[in-house]
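Hey, quick one: can you model this chain's 3D structure?
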Amino acid sequence: MPEWVDGEGRGPSRRSLLRTAGALLPALVLGVGGAAGTATAAGRPDRALPADPRGTFSSPGYDWTVVPGSGAASGVVFTLTGPDGRPLPGRRVRFSLSAFHTVRPSLWFEAAAAPEGGKSPERYGYMDLDTDARGRVALDSRLRHGAVPTGAAGLELRAQLVGTETLLATSRLSVSDPRSTR
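Sure thing. Here's the predicted structure for all 182 residues.
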């Protein structure tokens, strides 16, 4: 609660302003010091990215059948390697769905399952995930598909390293309804 100069509420006193600034100063100093440490850790030579990283999906295209509610879009695995073919573990990769706003009822990323009695999980058009020790990311538990077919639109799953604009890999995605082909 701020101290007032008098009971008429003309504003905080100089003393309360200085006390507030004094309380915030250590946080500002720690924030600046912490940022320098983070920059040093990110610039470690053992974490330097190879000049030509390569990314591949386990298939050039995936197709799932519509399901009521939602189902796991199984079988989607991404692998990140260096130019020598060695896996690149611990790298953050952004996976995104092209035209997410038009296919949201068909395909989406889900952050996590809702706890019992909680709100349902949110649907996202992209997700950042880290590669495992083998340079892989399995999207089975994150990529979901629903009850609405994607139609003829050219929907793609894209992968790129976070912090770069280089597209590493794309794969075609679709959700189809076998009843509509009869």
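One thing worth noting: Residues 1-7, 25-46 have pLDDT under 50 and may be disordered.
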